[in-house]
Amino acid sequence: MASETSQPPMAWRLCGDQVKLRRQDAGVSREELGQEAGYGPETIRAMEQGRRRPTQRLLDIADEMCGARGKLRAASEYLQPESIPKQIHLFLDAEARAIAQCQ
C-alpha cells in the first residue's frame, strides 16, 4: 500500500464482501471454507475484508461451496491488475516538462 491510510482496491473489497455474504447465507464457516481452499481462517478473513486480493482458488471453492452458480468466479476478471494506457508516455513527458519549468 502507498501509505497506512490508503484503502485496498475497491474490487478486492467488493469481491471479498460478496464471498462473505454468500458464505454466511450458505451457513459455511470461515474455517470450513479455509480448510477446503487450503487457507487459514485469518487469510479468509483478510480476503473477505479486502486486505488481501481474493485468489482464483478461493473464488472457485467458495462458488462451489456456497452455491453461487458462477457469480463468485465471475469476479476474478475484475481482480486483475489495471493495464497501463498506451498513451502514458505522453502524460509522463508532459509531467517532466512541467516539473522542469517549475524548477
UniProtKB/TrEMBL annotation:
Domain of life, per lineage: Bacteria
SMART domains documented for this protein: HTH_XRE
InterPro entries: Cro/C1-type_HTH (IPR001387), Lambda_DNA-bd_dom_sf (IPR010982)
Gene3D superfamilies: lambda repressor-like DNA-binding domains
CDD domains found in the cross-reference section: HTH_XRE
Domain HTH cro/C1-type: 19-59
Name of the protein described by the UniProt record: HTH cro/C1-type domain-containing protein
Species this chain originates from: Streptomyces thioluteus
